[in-house]
Records
---
Amino acid sequence: MDCSGEACSEPRNDDRRLVERATQGDRDAYGVLVSRHQHRMFNLAFQVLRNREDALDVAQEAFVKAFVSISSFKGEASFTTWMHRIVVNLAIDSLRRRRRGEGTEYDDGRAVPEGGEPDAEAPGNPAAELELKQMRGLLERGIASLPPAQRAVLVLREIEGMSYEAIAQAVGCRLGTVMSRLYYGRRKLQQLFRSQAADLR
Amino acid sequence: MSLSEIWRHRAHLALPGRSHLLLRHAAGETSPAEGQRVEAWLASCGECRRLVAASRSGLAALRASAPVRLTAAESAVFWSEVMRRLDRGGTPAVRPVRPGIRELLGDHPRLSLASAAAAVVLALGLTLGQFGLWGASSGMNGVEILSVEAGDDASVMLFQMPESPVKIIWVFEPPDPL
């Protein structure tokens, strides 16, 4: 189901009502919730996993898991926050499996960006395209070198823009751990981009 | 960063919290007062300015890599795949994977540094002890530790060799998490 029907145009704060209906086993209501949040949850999974196929699998599995345990959703946080927690934990798990040789490799780190093809950001400018490619290569190297939990925290902060407290809740760790994971994640990126700048000089 | 750079900029970089502050500043998380303090400090430290610029490039590249959306084809079958999995009986109970020892150390590089430093000191002590160069009564054979700086980027120890102008810089860098 894609979000094109009348039900999908209802405001976001209607999530709670849809959750209530889903709790009573209403799959259609849940389908509306899924279609509202599928792109965002897929993006979140992709940013952590950097692999399209794995991200799709994790996002779908997260919605399955959420439906199965929807009665435990207390409504203290929003449905989105709850889904973030499920997606991030499944993604971390998937990464750990991958690192132990049970999963797939990274793809090119770039699937279909919003609003165009992968290299549409620097059309007809070979120097800019090359620079863009180098940046992406560096970014992928940096992210690939981070332990799963550090990677997840970096994505939640820098891409999702979540507060430290919300990240601690989503990942299930202490505030200090969030700060330290973020520190090491950011430092890794800093070191890589610093060494590249030094190479260019 | 090279050894000489670390040494040259140690006053700026090795003090606890400074590199953390630089990273937070690059991410736009410092308060106006902190920001002013950092900017004043950046004015006098070229390497720090380059580090902030590198951080900003890295974060900009990360933010530019999002959002990634489902294709129309993926989107069209997304819900039906969720339904199919639900009909199959939902999520089978899969035990979460525990973080490996490498990941734990990667999360706490200072722990790795401490382990590495302890291992080096132990190995050095055993080796010197083996050759009678370092016993309980002989001291450290004249080798003097001039300074120890436990920085966020790397811990640095400076030794002075006995009766010699030679100084040894020992850098304990965090291991690559991979």
---
Amino acid sequence: MTAAIELDGVGKRYWQLSQQAMLLKSLLPFSRPTKTERWAVRNLTASIEVGETVGILGRNGAGKTTLLRMLAGVSRPTEGRIRIRGQVAPLISMGVGFHQEMSGRENVYVNGMLLGLSQAEITRRFDQIVEFAELADFIDTPVKFYSSGMYMRLGFAVAAHVDPDVLLVDEVLAVGDVAFQLKCIDRMRRLQQEGATIVVVSHSMHAVRLLCPRALLIRRGELVFDGDSETAISKHHELLTLDAAELATAAGDESNRTGDVTILSRELRGPNGPTHHPDQDEVLTYVVALRFERPVESPQMVFQVVTDVGILAYSMQTTLGRSWRRFEAGETVQTEIVFRPRLGGGTFRLVLVVTDRSGNSVLCRDADGFLMYTAPRLGTAGIAELEATIAVGEHDMTDHDSLLLASAGPGRAGDRDGAGSDPLADGNDIGAQPAWVVEPGERPEGHPWRDVGVDRPLRPGLDNPEPSAPGELLHIPLVEPET
Amino acid sequence: MQPADRRHQQVLEFAPHPETRRQWFAQLWSYRSVLDILARRDFQTRYKRASLGVIWAVAVPLLQAAVMAFVFSHVLRVGSGQRFAVYVMSGVVAYTYFSTVVQAGSTAIVDGAGLTDKVWFPRALLVIVPALSSLVGFVVTLVVVVAITPVFGVSLGPRLLLLIPATALLFAFSLGVSLVLGALHVYFRDVRFLVLAALTILIYLAPIVYPQTQLHRFGPWLDFNPLTGIVVLFHMSTVGSGGPWVRAVVVSVCATAVLLLAGTEAQRRHDRLFVDLL
């Protein structure tokens, strides 16, 4: 085996200037802008064999893109040495440097030549490229009129048809529609089979899991893990939650007090105690302790689940405009949200928003929230887990083991045999019933929700009206009954 | 498969130090086909969406030269006679090329950031592109100027051959200035505006719109402006020599050599660092 990519103590230093250098100022002897050094990447040593596909994980600013830029040769390392064998085709975010005024056709040529093809070679592959990009009708239109999806497709199509020995992929799978993403993954699989070395940088754990047997985890510019991607992903997630916790402590309760409501603590409880990695079928309780800094009349709550790229996966709010209780300044209260994370695989942020009675003014938005990671069911992608099954003709093609793997929650044992029982039968109305909690003595007389939830069969953990032991709490579901 | 094999076997090495001079020039040379296509596109896209198309590449500098010639020979009367009109036109055409190239070239690396922060190729290519693509318009304009010269009663002669070294020197000098300024502009964004300011002044610091003798005892000082030598060569080939020219041309050639050396050196050393500042 020969190494396709060798990194030997690679480091990249940036100078962070307090301001952009200016010609006149730099000529004056005493007014040099103060600069602080920042190592985007430091001490990176790794070796990637020919034909390997390796993912690079790390949170934003960890140095992934810097590393990729150095691999592409665009940026020079400050220390260390990089050796790359063969033709490199970088595919970094949106398209590889297209010229806005030129048509798609011309850009294919310029781009292909920049990637090392000759004009004749491009001509030979041209039809393939256009077909792959699905741009036959627009190939003579200047790319500035392209949508971002078209732009991206063309970029990927060119890079993928260069027959690179080393393909560098950065966040490409985050754009474009699902059909095209699948096509890209397909194409990358083919390049893999043909022996190409591929480096994938992606925030999508899904893409990394799908393509890369091995992953490097980078944190603050340093390599912290190099090994199989499953371990890397779980380590990555550990670090994410760790960093988030660190950040929260660093910010401290004092600086958190800017709003009208202070978040005191957050905790996600699963059946086996506090967790960051719930299974999809577990009934979870998200507990947020908060303190009102000024008197608030009948606050309302919004519970949101947001993906790691900021897409709202779920939002649920209490009924606006209802009067129910006044909280005094300094009063603390615990909010409990019960839900089931029927989400696709990935990192999700649980966000609690507290508003006034009308919902018009936000008193507190817990934007940092709580980071939670759910493992995807095998063969699934996306932000929702619909527990779909696929039957072709009479033949059930669903991997029922994977259905169970992710949803080993209570009451699911009957599904184990798969055939015959509807996997949705038990689950379809549970997760939608969050509840929150107030102290029983504080409940105002004639509260409109008082009797909610008792006319339905009780399910453990959800509609339990018994006050639980500590704090004498009572669950009051926020959803009104149908009348 | 044969041509592909070469690139599949290359081993790239990136280290903190820049490439050697030999490596850098070899790379520059290997990217010549890219340079060719970029220059072509640059020329085409500039005029593509205008109804008169490429005609503008000739019409604008020609009009500029004609107006300048008219103003300085008939309104301000710095010089006199029809010879002077040709004198101004040939100078202005050369200066227009210089000014177009330097304006585009000095900002090329920053303006081309979108094209360059993903794939590497020698950044100097971006600077060379405007120098090449403007050459087409320049040559055609020059031909038109020469063609109408007899109308002004100036006879043409074998001295026209001087246009070749004159154009070569103009190209090399413009390129040298662009390479140096292009590298500098990445670090200091003032350069863009300094260039604009300098270009409006420079035209009066060379004998373009007035005869050098007009300045009396200050005239010889113009020789130290490298542009003077270039313009003098153009004058010599169109209207014939008007006085001493050796010193001015020597200054131009030396300045061009120094600028080209400094420019390629700056580009080589900073090539893979530019991206960090874009």
---
Amino acid sequence: MNEELLEITDLEVTYGKRGFGAEPAPALKGVSLGIGAGETMGLVGESGSGKTTLGRAVLGLVPVTGGSIRYLGQDITQVDRRRRRALAAQLQVIFQDPYSSLNPSMLVEDILSEPLRAAGVPGRDARKRVNALMERVDLPAGAGRRLPREFSGGQRQRIAIARALALEPALIVCDEPVSALDMSTQIRILDLLVDIQQSTNVAYLFISHDLEVVRYVSHRVAVMFRGEIVERGDAEQVTADPSHPYTRRLLMAAPVPDPAVQAVRREERARFLAGESSAVAAS
Amino acid sequence: MTESTVLENASQTSLAGVARRGVIRRLLRDPLGIASTLLLALIALIAIFAPLIVWNDPGVSQLDKVNASPGGGFLLGGDSAGRDILSRLLVGARLTLLGGLVAAGVAAVVGVGFGLAAGYRGKWFDLVSGWVSDLVMVLPSIIVLVAMFTVTGPNAVLAMFVLGIMLAPSFFRLTRSLVIQVKRNLYVDAAKVSAISDLRIVGRHIFTVIRGPLVIHFVLITSVAIIIQSGLDFIGLGDPNVPTWGSMLQDAFRSLYLSSTAYIWPGLAIALTVASLLLLGNALRDALEDVERAPRAARKANWVAPVRSTAPTASDALLCVEDLVISYRNADGGLNRVVDGVSFEVRAGEVLGLVGESGSGKTQTALAILRLLPTGGHVAGGRIVLDGEDLAHRSQREMTSVRGRRIAYVPQEPMSNLDPTAKIGSQLTEPIRVKLGLPRREAKERALELLEQVNITNPQRVFDSYPHEISGGMAQRVLIAGAVSCDPDIIIADEPTTALDVTVQAEILDILRRLRTERNLAVLLVTHNFGVVADLCDRVVVMQTGQIVEEGVVGRIFAEPRHPYTRALMSAMLTGRPSRRERSLQEAVQ
């Protein structure tokens, strides 16, 4: 992946001051990341690590205070409304919560056709495209005339995926798209995302707290900790044999669904944490 | 959403989940709703067609009818000027209702318009319109209207217009707060990403979602406007040439000693109209909040007989659930069984995992044991036996002594289970003092000791903190400390680590494991995560759509799952699956 689709350089985001005297804490401290066309870049971290902020900055949903975001070589760090409209066809999003990401008072077909209409696609073509999209994400027939609340979490996430695909974007920011779903639904959604990527060559910035999920869908992985990327590299290597102590801590904290193996990992983790704290004490 | 479907649906009753389809149907099913709607429709029809109905000109005086009693063509008698009270009452409905609607309409248009803009835009616009709104609110509306009357003379429409402006701040404040709530929804962000214009976002994604409460407010403000307007007419600030209920009331009061019944009719008309509006507002609110439950997708199409590893050995069981049935009453009055004939037992010092996907009934089972089912849910059958005593048939009051002392609860969302207004310390010591009867100082010592036991390094600081000052993981530790504070025999933990980071999850699991060994505590662990099961549980019960499909020792369940549903759950796990690159390599080889 030498030709990057999206190039993030030294990105800084600092949220406004909260209360008197409190110094504003930077949410991102000089993050650099590149994503190639058709690639999945996994972004792992715990709550508060800044991974969601990074995704929102790419989408223009949070004000950037430093650094740059370039899309196909063009600077999109700060763009006006007109340019943002052009970008809407290129950058899209799938959010974590399939409940608050779909307007409860709109029919599914209206949710799906909205981005098309905003982009100026005529009515008949939009309807055709909506039907194709619903088929693409395996929504049941007649889904278009129903409200989001009539669907399960997994199906709602399919609707959100269809909405993101409507304008055939080049990059989709997936912000924890499966963490609110049941296990069996989770893998079906992940398989759908991979399948779509193979047929459309869309790139994903795939944000998740779960190393297993990221390993399953990503080509490359970056690990975030306190607003910085502490480790990056090939997905297999980072998720199976990480080099940074924080990533190793993450890996060992995730319980393995096998009682015998988990008992061993628990021991390992205890030893690792003991070693870490004695190292801290020594230094 | 890892809770059961029923809980999901219950939480959907929120503002955003309000459904409009069927609101009118539900409104008309409510007796008060239909009565108030019919009455208001009747009053509106009378107001519209009054000039065609009345047979006596409401403006013409007949000298022989001055303060006359009912009769002789004047069914309700005559007023102080000898005019027909009934005719004036019917015609008076016109201006009275029109005035109310004009005032409420102006208030709605101005208030909602500014409220939408201020709530969505925020920043300086919000600030300035907030100031203006506050300024209008502090002006006493009656005095303003009286002052205006002295300048412009009687002008009912203008007065109502001004009254509308005076009432606008209530719409403004309501709209603004609703918008601020709704604009946090992710679908608003999704629309921004698609570069939908602000006007469309506000119109399509915000207004349509908040219009329900605004309609209710409109109905209530109309009744307020009618009362204020009638009050103005009553003190003589109306147009004397056009009858209104307020001016009729004034006339009747002036001749109260000559005609003692005339004041009843306009008073009754105002009271009935305003009462109908208030009742309609209440009925509308009920109809809007009563969301029909989403149809349950789960059906028992491929039902396979459950797998049980051992015959029940009841004698050494601490908690024994037998044939538990939990039902919910749904919107159309039918019963919905969410748990159907569930039996299992937990032995002392044992960790039993209750596993399943959303809608399996695992959370419902746990809540039923604690007798904490949400409204509408109840135990419809079976027994819940704790140490030989049946809890299912105990009163709520008796359950209060069981909860905490015998059974404790650790919830999924630690933050929402702590009172944000009280310090951690007082929340921890209160149950200790009430349940165990310890004095304040000893309760504090015990609480600090407990905080230390759940690996909190600085117990005193956490003890003195408010919930918002600590992290989610810390809050969960506090709740576990609270759960074990009265030395229960069993803890029911409902997805205790689902909302937490993995590193924190591992620590919480360590704490639970240690408490269980140290105190010989039994744990009923509700979870959907097989990793957590493997880490902590001795035995597992697998639930699917309200029933147990498999039960067994943890090693056996993982090594050889027998029921197809358990096998399906196991095969959906990502652990051990080839990574993305490994899969593409495999595909390339084929």
